[in-house]
Write a structure and sequence with these properties.
Strand content: 25-35%
CATH superfamily: tt1808, chain A
Oligomer: single chain
Distance between the termini: 21 Å
Structural class: alpha+beta
Largest sheet: 6 strands, mixed
CATH architecture: Alpha-Beta Complex
CATH class: Alpha Beta
Length: 186
């Protein structure tokens, strides 16, 4: 969940320096800072299950998997967000400290309060990332996963998955049963 922290403008550099001193995470969008509030246990479990599967799959590869505390920069100057799971296979991100710049896969676990933004405004921001190949939205309160994949014509295509399906994430060549992300959740 995102809560508007304050309405005063902050430069990207001011934000990056300021946020290092904060006790909670804040997203930065168009000069505004938004405090990130905690999610539910099912939300956390869904993200952790997928991140664990990705970590095992990508072990020994050039890719890195990060979870909710890893910031993603749409550009050097923002916006800056905290996806639930992010994978980057770019060599510059291998040693990233402040934020991931070149993600190939971004995953958001949906909650009722953020679903519309994750599907709309946030996806619009993420589409500006040149390296992004897939954007995945996973429901935390019912079984379902939507994968938006960039096709060879530069268009984003929706690939929905429901209970019983196997999911293939092309960006990292990872195939898994959808039930993997819901293990011990329902």
């Amino acid at each position: 969940m995102v809560v508007n922290f304050e309405k005063s403008y902050m430069s990207p550099l001011e934000y990056l320096e300021w946020e290092e001193q904060q006790d909670i995470k804040h997203e930065y969008i168009n000069g505004e800072v938004f405090a990130m509030t905690g999610g539910t246990i099912p939300h956390n479990d869904v993200a952790f299950n997928l991140a664990s599967g990705l970590k095992n799959h990508l072990k020994g590869s050039k890719c890195r998997v990060n979870i909710a505390d890893a910031k993603v920069g749409v550009s050097d100057t923002g916006p800056f967000t905290y996806p639930d799971v992010v994978v980057s296979c770019h060599p510059k991100d291998k040693k990233a400290i402040k934020f991931i710049e070149f993600p190939s896969l971004i995953v958001e676990v949906l909650s009722p309060s953020t679903e519309a933004y994750d599907r709309g405004g946030k996806f619009q921001l993420y589409r500006r990332i040149q390296s992004l190949q897939e954007y995945v939205l996973i429901s935390a309160d019912k079984i379902g996963l939507d994968c938006f994949r960039l096709n060879d014509r530069g268009l984003w295509e929706l690939h929905p998955f429901v209970e019983g399906d196997d999911v293939h994430l092309v960006s990292v060549d990872f195939t898994f049963p959808l039930s993997l992300v819901y293990e011990d959740v329902f």
